[in-house]
Here is the input.
Amino acid sequence: MGTVSNEEYDRKKELKAFDETKMGVKGLVDSGLKTVPRIFIRPEDELSKEHEIPCVNLQVPVISLQGIESKDVRDKIVKQVLHASEKWGFFQVVDHGIPLEVLEKTLQGNQMFHEQDVEVKKMFYSRGDLMKCVVYGSNYDLYVSRAANWRDTFALVNSYPGFFDPNQIPEFCRDVMMNYIEHVLKLSETLLELLSMGLGLEPSYLKDETQCTQGWYLVNHYYPACPAPELTIGTTKHSDPSFFTILLQDNLGGLQVFHENQWVNIPPIPGAFVVNIGDILQIMSNDKLKSNFHRAITNQVGPRISTAFFLEGVQSSTKLFGPIKELVSEDHPPIYKEFTLGDYDTKFRDRPLDVPGFDLFKIQSDANNID
Ligand code: OGA
Ligand code: NI
Here is the structure.
């Protein structure tokens, strides 16, 4: 099996045929497919570059929140969070107080959604409908990416307060998902305080100034077993369009962060969350915090299940976001322009896929200076 260039086949037609099944990648695997269809095969130039970048097992920081109520411990945690967010843009959080059972049930609910009766699941299938708050789909960028990802997604969207309607979630996982969201929102508030303090701001600064806990996006990913993992990928290299993201992954592994020109595995730790800084906090911190590239590779065994909670802020807000005034000075002039979250979202969707979201608002960035 080789790679085939776009000219040699009617890619659009094959993408459309896949889209119209409304059964996602899981549907293909269930049909008994033993090879990777060409719409999923990564382009030759990408695959050949792959071997130049080593994959290593460095330790991504693991931070315990045990004892956070005491000032001394909290000060230590603040330093750890800041250091990890500057150096890696990634850390794992343990001893966060959310019961293991809540995490397990969430991943089970995720899996049950994807493995339910396909005719029922199809009714949730949607592409690009911004009015829906509960959507199932595969490859949101199917028609524009160079290769489709080996992944399906079931998403819960709260673009602004009042947008989300829990009754749209199938009953069998409704309480589990809502309970999970409540817990991760609380953890988000803690993380916002730690990050605010790390940046030398009042503990309540990020929450109060951004109102970011009022808008969120929960995505339940399902990565089916893949017959030829080296030809495709579960999630292409990207940085997240969020303030930060809290990821829960099962025990299979596959998540990698790009650190010092190497892919570093983020091995699952039972009961831990993976937290990563997103584009908006990189911009607000004027590049002090790092929104780092990451990806998910596929595996011959599966499915792999992960649930990502994106803290996104209120998409309809007219508030302007940009580098925090307290963090800029003559020596550290602002690197980014101001924008609304709605502008950010629109430009993020329209950008060439290899442009990271934070680049869209860089002052003096040549290729992307849009105004
Ligand atoms: C994401 C993401 C990684 C994973 O959803 O943005 O990076 O392990 N997911 O599913
Ligand atoms: Ni991501």
The first strand starts at residue 55 and ends at 56. The two ends are 45 Å apart (CA to CA). The first helix runs from residue 11 to 21. The mean pLDDT is 94.
